[in-house]
Design a protein that fits this description.
There is one protein chain. The protein is about 40% helix and about 15% strand. The protein has about 300 residues and is an alpha+beta fold. The strands form three sheets. Strands 6-5-7-8-9-10-11 form a seven-stranded mixed β-sheet, with helices on both faces. Helix 1 (about 5-15) crosses helix 2 and helix 5 (about 110-115) runs antiparallel to helix 6. The protein is elongated, with a radius of gyration of 24 Å. Keywords: Endonuclease, Hydrolase, Nuclease.
C-alpha cells in the first residue's frame, strides 16, 4: 500500500465521510506532515503551509499536478473539514490573520501528529481509540481558540454578531459603534459585509422596500445604514488598503442604487488619517470621509452644504 492509500485509510479511521476519503485529502494530509513515499510515519514534520504550498507538494513529491483552479476544492472540500474536525489548525501563528491574507496557512494539529506517529506500530489501535474518545473536545478546543480571534460588533438594536478577524472587520465594527451613533443616530443597519462571510447582516425586506438591490453582494458597499427620520441611505466603504469612494465607485453605487427613493449619502471610512492621506487625490466630490481615530469629526468633500444626499 502506497502512502496516499495509507493516508486515506487514516482519514477513514478518523471517521471523516467518504467525500473526504479521496486522493486530494490523502495528499493534503501527507503535505501537512511532509511525508514522502519513501518516508516513515514515525518521522513527521509540522510546517505552516498555504494552499499553494500544498499543491506544490502534490506535484513535486507525488507527481500529482493539480490545476490552479483546484485551490478552492482543497480549501473548501478538504482543509475546511480537517480544521473543523481538529485534524489541522489554521493560522496557529496568528489567529487574527484576515481571510484574504496571502499568509493564510494550515498546520497539522499537535494531538493529531502524536496519533499519526503511532500508525503502522502496535500502539496504533490503542492510540486511535483514545484519540477518537476525545476528538469532540479537541475540535471544540480548537474552535474556541479560533473564535477568540473573531471581531465582535454590537448593532444598534443591542444584538451581537461576529466577523472574520482583521483590520477590515475592525473598521466595520467602528463604523457601526462609533460613526453611526454620531452621524447617523437612530439609523437601522440594513447590510454589513464581511470578507469571510459576505452579507453578515442583510435586511432583505427593508432593502426591497427602499428599492435597493438584493442580489448584488459583490458590488455592495461594506455597510448600509438607513435613517428613517431623514430618509437617508448611508452607503459606507470600509477602507484599510483599497476601495475608497472615488469617482468610479461613486458612479457604480449611484447606478446600483438608482431605484432607491431615499437620499444617498456616500461615506468612505478609514482607520486613521495616515491611510486616508494616501487616497485624498481620488476621493469623489459630494461624499464624506470619516476616520476611526478621530471619531467625532467628519470631512465633507462637497461645496454647497454639509452632509446629506446630493
Amino acid at each position: 500500500m502506497g502512502k496516499i492509500d495509507e493516508a486515506i485509510e487514516i482519514i477513514a479511521a478518523l471517521g471523516y465521510p467518504r467525500t473526504q476519503q479521496n486522493e486530494r485529502s490523502g495528499l493534503t494530509l501527507l503535505a501537512l506532515v511532509q511525508l514522502k513515499e519513501e518516508g516513515s510515519w514515525q518521522t513527521l514534520s509540522e510546517p505552516l503551509l498555504g494552499v499553494r504550498a500544498i499543491l506544490d507538494y502534490c506535484r513535486n513529491d507525488y507527481n500529482k499536478p493539480y490545476a490552479e483552479n483546484s485551490r478552492e476544492s482543497f480549501r473548501k472540500e478538504t482543509l475546511h473539514q480537517f480544521v473543523s474536525g481538529g485534524l489541522a489548525l489554521q493560522n496557529p501563528d496568528k489567529p487574527s490573520r484576515p481571510p484574504n491574507s496571502p499568509q493564510w496557512n494550515y498546520q497539522i494539529a499537535p494531538d493529531a501528529k502524536q496519533l499519526l506517529l503511532t500508525y503502522k506500530t502496535p500502539a496504533w489501535d490503542e492510540a486511535l481509540a483514545a484519540y477518537l474518545s476525545q476528538i469532540g473536545s479537541l475540535a471544540e478546543k480548537y474552535k474556541a481558540h479560533r473564535d477568540l480571534a473573531m471581531i465582535p460588533c454590537r448593532l444598534p438594536d443591542g444584538s451581537l454578531f461576529e466577523m472574520s478577524p482583521g483590520g477590515h472587520s475592525e473598521l466595520i465594527r467602528d463604523i457601526i459603534q462609533e460613526f453611526a451613533p454620531r452621524f447617523a443616530p437612530g439609523a437601522q443597519v440594513l447590510y454589513l459585509g464581511d470578507t469571510g462571510n459576505k452579507g453578515v447582516v442583510m435586511d432583505l425586506a427593508a432593502l426591497e422596500l427602499l428599492g435597493a438591490p438584493l442580489h448584488e453582494r459583490g458590488k455592495m458597499p461594506d455597510a448600509i445604514l438607513y435613517a428613517k427620520d431623514k430618509d437617508w441611505l448611508y452607503l459606507v466603504e470600509s477602507v484599510t488598503s483599497v476601495g475608497p469612494v472615488d469617482g468610479k465607485r461613486h458612479a457604480e453605487l449611484s447606478y446600483l442604487f438608482r431605484n432607491v427613493s431615499a437620499g444617498l449619502v456616500f461615506v468612505t471610512a478609514f482607520p486613521n488619517r495616515q491611510i486616508m492621506a494616501r487616497f485624498l487625490p481620488v476621493i469623489a466630490w459630494e461624499t464624506e470621509v470619516w476616520c476611526a481615530d478621530n471619531p467625532t469629526h467628519l470631512i465633507h468633500f462637497n461645496g454647497d452644504r454639509f452632509m446629506g444626499p446630493h
